[in-house]
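User: Could you go from structure to sequence for me? I need the amino acid at each position, not a summary. Structure tokens:
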């Protein structure tokens, strides 16, 4: 029987693959965002957010020296996760990520969807705001194998366990979404930044973290993770399986308090604490914390180690991303 032997989680913000000298430019682009969720839970435009921000405190966080230090921290953490991925000698990797209308669109937006096709197109050549290729990204698109057998098995198991999970067998190039017929950026990040050596066959699990009205609750996400673990262990194949969450933590406004609440709940394996995360805050980019919660539920039998937490501010209003990196083993 298969065994779940490793859990990983990583932020996937493009800021991770942007040189430190490009961070301030990303901060400038935040000024056009009219749906920034502040640390007070209020959604507003940039100017209103700036008026509510402790600008003196944030000014100390957005110096070139801080940008460079935190960029280096991020790269070291990504390298540690990549090393852990290959040390585990996995046969299959389950990737839990959110699709931001790249493949799943308003015509059909399931809360959960598992891919059961035999391969996916992985995007390459992704460019940053300076027009240069993002750090660590492949120059060209490519096809990568998936484990259709595990995907099919998880769907069947979750249905029996009363999760009404969606099923997808191919990616439709005619949909015209951001992914251009490929798997979404949450999954592309894992291929480009964590799979730095051989490609490991994957089983993609897509969550609707972003879009009301059918975003799953933190409790539902944790229980989904538990069920995925049981599905893996009931798969009648001798295989070492890992699971990774792609996305999070707080963004597009850094909310260190929210991130620490989430990390504490996952470390303590506390569904109660995770259920108490302020629901108005886990929307937009911060909604991707749900991906982490799924992995925390799946890896409940293992110990969580936070490899690093790096609050990456990039503008005077406190916009940016709370970069998190974690390992369960």
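Assistant: Here is the amino acid at each position, in order:
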């Amino acid at each position: 029987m298969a065994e779940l032997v490793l859990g990983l989680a990583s932020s996937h913000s493009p800021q991770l693959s942007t040189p430190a000298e490009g961070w301030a430019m990303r901060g400038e682009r935040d000024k056009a965002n009219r749906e920034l969720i502040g640390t007070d839970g209020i959604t507003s435009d940039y100017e209103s957010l700036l008026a509510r921000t402790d600008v003196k405190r944030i000014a100390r966080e957005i110096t070139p020296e801080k940008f460079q230090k935190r960029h280096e921290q991020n790269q070291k953490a990504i390298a540690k996760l990549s090393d852990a991925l290959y040390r585990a000698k996995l046969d299959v990797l389950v990737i839990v990520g959110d699709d931001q209308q790249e493949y799943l669109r308003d015509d059909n937006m399931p809360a959960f969807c598992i891919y059961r096709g035999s391969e996916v197109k992985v995007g390459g050549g992704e460019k940053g705001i300076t027009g240069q290729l993002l750090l660590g990204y492949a120059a060209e698109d490519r096809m990568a194998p998936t484990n259709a057998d595990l995907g099919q098995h998880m769907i069947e198991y979750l249905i029996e366990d009363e999760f009404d999970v969606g099923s997808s067998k191919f990616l439709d190039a005619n949909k015209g979404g951001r992914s251009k017929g490929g798997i979404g950026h949450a999954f592309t990040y894992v291929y480009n930044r964590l799979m730095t050596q051989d490609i490991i066959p994957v089983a993609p699990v897509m969550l609707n973290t972003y879009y009301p009205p059918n975003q799953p609750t933190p409790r539902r996400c944790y229980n989904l993770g538990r069920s995925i673990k049981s599905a893996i262990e009931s798969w009648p194949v001798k295989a070492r399986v890992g699971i990774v969450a792609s996305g999070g933590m707080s963004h597009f406004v850094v909310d260190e308090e929210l991130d620490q609440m989430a990390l504490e709940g996952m470390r303590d394996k506390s569904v109660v604490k995770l259920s108490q995360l302020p629901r108005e805050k886990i929307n937009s980019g911060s909604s991707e914390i749900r991906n982490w919660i799924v992995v925390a539920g799946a890896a409940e039998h293992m110990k969580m180690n936070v490899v690093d937490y790096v609050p990456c501010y990039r503008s005077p209003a406190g916009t940016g991303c709370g970069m998190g990196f974690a390992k369960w083993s």
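One structural detail worth keeping in mind: The first strand starts at residue 3 and ends at 10.
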